[in-house]
Amino acid sequence: MGKLQERGFLKRIFAIRGMVQVLTVTFGLVMLCIIFGILNPNFFSGANNLNLLRQIAPILLIGISQAYVLITGNIDLSIGSVVGMSTMIASTLMSKSGINPWIAALIAMAACLVIGIGNGLLVAKCKLPPFIATLGTMTIARGIAQLANNNYNTDSIAKVLGEPAVQGFRDFFYYGSFLHIYNTIWIALVLWLVFDFFIGRTRSGRHIYAIGSNAESARLSGVSITLTTVKAYVVSAFCACVVGLILCAQAGMGAMDAGSSYELYAVAAAVIGGVSTLGGQGLLIGVVVGASIWGVLQNGLQFANVAIAWRNIIIGTIVIVSVLLDVIVRTGARGKNFKMTSKRNARNIILGRVKK
């Protein structure tokens, strides 16, 4: 009886769409850790493990950002610039105007959410290709980051307020710890739990998968394409803003190039973790694995004294292979039946009949 229950449990696990990819990349993550541990035993040291987790946390958050948008069948190129805009707005308000750190953070959040709403409306309402729409908002957000302090990096955020006034802000987002685990890790974990529940257990989450599977079928089933797309881009902007605040707390100042290339890191974390670039498929648990692979590669290759140029080449190759495999599986294997299958999946997802 126990074996039958175990088989039934495993069957249900493998029936979840995208779980096979997650398990595959998890195996790859374990192998990477073993290899780097053999190359340098310090890789498994307690101090390195905590620092590694703190490095992975921001990548996980921007991976969630991109995953939500990719699942709808779109893409968000503005993530890195929104990170920079968040950093510069918050740090400028603190360093020049002496505004309370938490109020400054809320103002930065409001500005970032405007970008998210704008992205959603441009893509869903104005029918702009997501690549073009978010390329434009990427440039706008980076321009706002540069203008925030008149094309200069900011002074210390404690310059006007004083170190004690900003220490709580810095501890909350980066330097503090709870149960010997850095707060940055807790923030990423809590937000992952919230957004995983939202996309996996709510009607809005089912709609996000549905429009990624087949937008027209979802629309005919009563799903608001505009509202659902806006929600996905708002989640993206929210997570990017939090990462910007983390960078601000870490550096104690604002840098105009903060978040540079983060949109690429976000794509890497999502697609390595099994989120489909074609929409309609992906699990946020996979993003955890994808972000971890990214962090382990960066950390492990650094321990192995591999030049940064080779690190970029290796990670870039992994991203290309991940996307290529997804395209082959989603289009080549299914062939002519792909479009019909996606329509049926969209209707079933809306009705809650299948697991994502």
Walk me through the topology.
Layout: H1 2-15, H2 19-39, H3 46-71, H4 79-97, H5 101-124, H6 130-147, H7 158-161, H8 163-175, E1 177-178, E2 181-182, H9 183-201, H10 203-213, H11 215-220, H12 225-251, H13 262-272, H14 284-303, H15 308-332, H16 338-350
Antiparallel strand pairs: 1-2
Number of individual domains: 1
Terminal residue distance:
28 Å
Structural class per helix/strand content? mainly alpha
CA-based gyration radius? 21 Å
Q: List the secondary-structure elements in sequence, H or E.
A: HHHHHHHHEEHHHHHHHH
Strand count, sense and barrel status of the largest sheet are: 2 strands, antiparallel
Given the C-alpha coordinates, what overall shape results? globular
- Flag low-confidence runs: none
Number of strands: 2
Helix content: over 70%
Strand order of the largest sheet: 1-2
Q: Mean pLDDT across all residues, rounded? A: 87
Work out the strand percent.
under 5%
How does this structure look, described?
With 356 residues, the protein is mainly α. The chain has one domain (58-350). It contains 16 helices and 2 strands. The protein has helices at 2-15, 19-39, 46-71, 79-97, 101-124, 130-147, 158-161, 163-175, 183-201, 203-213, 215-220, 225-251, 262-272, 284-303, 308-332, 338-350; strands at 177-178, 181-182. A two-stranded antiparallel sheet has the order 1-2. β1 and β2 (181-182) form a beta hairpin. α10 (203-213) packs across α12, α10 (203-213) packs antiparallel against α16 (338-350) and α13 packs across α15 (308-332). The protein is globular, with a radius of gyration of 21 Å. It starts with a helix and ends in a 6-residue tail after the last helix. 47% of the residues are buried.
